[in-house]
Amino acid sequence: MKIEVHKTKGECGAAAAGQAAEILRNAIAEKGRASFIAATGASQFEFLKGLTGQTSIGWEKTTMYHLDEYIGLPEDHPASFRRYLRERLIDRVHPRVIHLIQGDAEDPHVECRRLGGIISREKIDVTFVGIGENGHLAFNDPPADFDTEDPYIVVELNEACRKQQLGEGWFHSLEEVPRRAISMSIRQIMESQAIVCTVPDKRKAKAVKQCLEGEVSPWYPASILRKHSNAFLYLDKDSASLLQKK
Questions:
Q1: Got the DSSP string for 36-56?
Q2: What is the pTM of this model?
């Protein structure tokens, strides 16, 4: 894993966006198209701002997949990740093909199978992710399932995860935060040809330390990124503040 530490979250996001853009451009140059998986959350604000500002990406040659979504929220809910992606990515760059998770589908397990059937036919060039305050990767809270081969799964959100969503301002109360979500699985994330992980902010420092300096374990889900041969981790000085100095 390649790790970069930047002074500010803006510089962190811009550097990650530059790396992501290079991967997308190279994929398009090599095969005429590129596929990517998009993440959401406050950690992705600066990254997506930088990425959508890139003018050298042939977005009309890209296919976008969606990392995770709450179960039961309509798309127009302020906390819906579909809404987030439309406002911050899709409506700005217009990928050619878009595969969003229908979190309000009648049966989330059927929705998982639908999405799994689509993504199983695809070679993903790059996945964009963050790391949760509890160390989660996508909505795979600890202890995460490192073994399932299903591309998308229904997961239970633990209290730490739900409190993070409340703390970021997406909901007015903890009771409003859904208890279940559809998440891309760990194995599916790891199958991506490249992974760009953007993690700013002091509140992520403990999770960053655990995932980088602890054991690779389902109890620290994002620690699995250390096993990927082409992963890039972008931190700011605050999220890196607890790391041992080398």
A1: EEE--SGGGHHHHHHHHT-SS
A2: 0.95
